[in-house]
Structure formats: C-alpha cells, structure tokens
C-alpha cells in the first residue's frame, strides 16, 4: 500500500529522484565491476584485454535478452498495479520467472556446445581465441545468476522499492571486485587463473546478487509474489511482456551487434584500436548508467500513473526527465574532455593507445547529451507500453548510421576522423526519439477531453 501511495501521490520530482538515485548507484556499481574486470585483465596483457573486449559483445547480447524481458515485465507489472489488479500482477510475475529460467537454459546450452565456434568467429589469432573461449564459456554456462538477478530486481522496482534492488546488486558487485584480483593473480592461496579467474569472479558475484534479490522479494515485496499454487499460464501475459520487452531486447542486442561489427572494422586498423574501443564502451556505459537509472525509475512511475489514468503525472514526469538527463550527460562530457588521458591510464594504456584514444574520447563526448535524450525518450515510451521508439532510436544511434559512417570515414580519412560518426548518429537518433515520444504523448491526450490542454506541450 505504501508503494502504491508513493507512485500515485508523492510529487513527481522527489519521487523520480528518490527512485532514480538507488538505481543510478546500483547500475554504476554494476558498470564499475565490468570496468574493474578490464583493469585487472589489462595487467595480464593487452591481448587479454582485447579478448575481454571481443567477448563483451556476446555477453552484452545475453544481458540484452534478460534486461529486455525484465523491462517488459516491469512495465506490465506497474500498469497492473496501477489498475489495482494485484492478482494479475502476481500471475505475470510467475510467468516472467519461467521465461527467465527458460532463456538462461538456452544460453547455458550455447556455452556448453558452441563456445569454441564463437571464439573462432571472434578472432583469428590462436592465443586470442583461447582467451576468448575461457572467458566466454564460463559466463554463458553459469548465466542463470544474471538472469535471476535482473528478474528479481525488476519486481522490486515495479512496486517502487529501488533501495533493495540497489542493495542486491551492490552485494554481487562488491563480491566480484574482491574476488577479481584473488582469482586472476592467485592471492590468498588461490591458484592464478588469469582470464578464467575474472569470469569465475563475475558469475559468483551474479549468483550472490540473485540470491539476495530473490530473498528481498520473498520477505519485503508487499504486492508481487510468485505463486505456483493455482497458477494458470496465459499467452496474453507473454504477449504483454514482449510487446515492450522484444523491442528492448532488439535495442540492447543492437549494442552487441554494433560492438562486434565495430571490432571487426577496427581490427583492420590495429589491435590497439580494438582494445581502446572496449575501454571507451565500458567508460561510456559507466557514464550512461545514471541516465539508465533515471529512465528505469521513470518506467514504473509512468506505467503506474498511465494505468491509474492520472495523465497529468505522466506529463510532469516527461517535463522533468529530459532536462535532468541532459545535465548528467553534460557533466560526463566535461569529464571526458578534461581528463581523457587519466581515464585511459586506468587501463594501463600504452603510448600508442593514448595517442589514438585521447582525441577520440574528446570527439565522442560531444554527443553525450543527445545520446541521453534518445535513451530517456525510449524509456518513457516503454512506460507507456510502446517499445518501438526505444528500439528504433537505438538502431539509428548504435548501428545503422554509426557503423556505416565509421566505416566510410575510416576508409576516406583514417581512424582519427572516424569518431565523428558518433556525432551524425546521435543527432539523427535524438531528433527521431524526441519527436516520436512527443507525438505519442499528444496522441494519448487527444482521446481524453479533460486533458486536452496538455496537447500544447
């Protein structure tokens, strides 16, 4: 009842910020342990760092499926709670659990039977292939930890409890950060396992986070519970989850495809360029985690009030969401512009990488504000039940324009000019996402005479 009153009655600005801050912190911590992995792996060799960068595209694809399903489930649960249908919310949560378990089994089978094949597709060098296989196989086979962790966190977020969601993720992340140097370098009596140790530390952290999140739901979630007794599977729940979830999966998968293709393009330039792009992508993800936290906080707020037909609160969320995200992104631009060398040195950057990476980080950082607006428009639209805007915006900014422009610019002017492809991709994606989200909002209000004054937004 308290979470329902909070989503329905608390002023939007403090509601959005109090829900977003724990999500921002939890996502930052999650991104941090990906960065910590790379920092420790980089101390093994640049080849090991390159392997981790290549494998990240496959990991990101796996995470995309889990996150996309969870976003769709989150949007559905929030609407059901807003419509005051807790029994239907519990049924949908149970269906979501079965979907997550089934998906994790598929990826585990891929890890068991196809890790060798994937590694040979990622790299031609035999040493690089072996390192890719070691890191990838462990992450895939034991992926059920990240799927269950993502699922349980979204159940907490759907009722407005972002603090416990944050705590569950921090538990896993801190454990991973502690175990990384122990398992990679062989400290405290543990054998030195190199890249394999980094992967084992990651999955142990994910499993610990999943257990914590499931326990938090069992004892602290006031509305949503998994109920197997008298459970009736309904395809409509699956359809409702994937109406938002599938476009989100595709959107997330686009990032995986993009990193794979860009890595193939950059391999023709140098292995250092591939290693740099892996570093940039993790740093950029770290910066965008507060943006994603803000957007994820908006989903239950928008979904609940949309289901409750409180459309003025939906409009207020829109007005607060984008300026806040733009300010956060602008701070990131300042950091990347002023301290590019220091950021790269965290990863033991060579002089060649510094020469390539410092101007690249400065060029790319100019586009961060536009990227933030695209991302937040996508989350906002997902809260309203439309995942297409999120998907298409991501396709424009991460794949269609970015990859093609990067390839053309490198062929014509070399790698130093290739990074300007980010400007073109982000500008077009920002214009599309803002206009389509704005149109969606006006369409919703046009059918409600009592809210027609809001069409002037």
Summarize the structure.
The protein is mostly helical and 457 residues long.
Topology:
Elements: H1 2-9, H2 12-42, H3 46-82, H4 86-122, H5 126-141, H6 144-158, H7 162-185, H8 194-220, H9 235-267, H10 271-307, H11 311-338, H12 340-345, H13 351-365, H14 368-383, H15 388-413, H16 415-418, H17 421-446
Task: Describe it.
The chain is an all-alpha fold. The chain has helices at residues 2-9, 12-42, 46-82, 86-122, 126-141, 144-158, 162-185, 194-220, 235-267, 271-307, 311-338, 340-345, 351-365, 368-383, 388-413, 415-418, 421-446. The protein is globular, with a radius of gyration of 22 Å.
Task: Spell out the key features of this protein.
457 residues; mainly alpha; 17 helices; 84% helix; 0% strand
Low-pLDDT residue intervals, each spanning 5 or more residues: none
Morphology call: globular
Going by helix content, strand content and strand pairing, the class is mainly alpha
Helix tally equals 17
- Order of SSEs: HHHHHHHHHHHHHHHHH
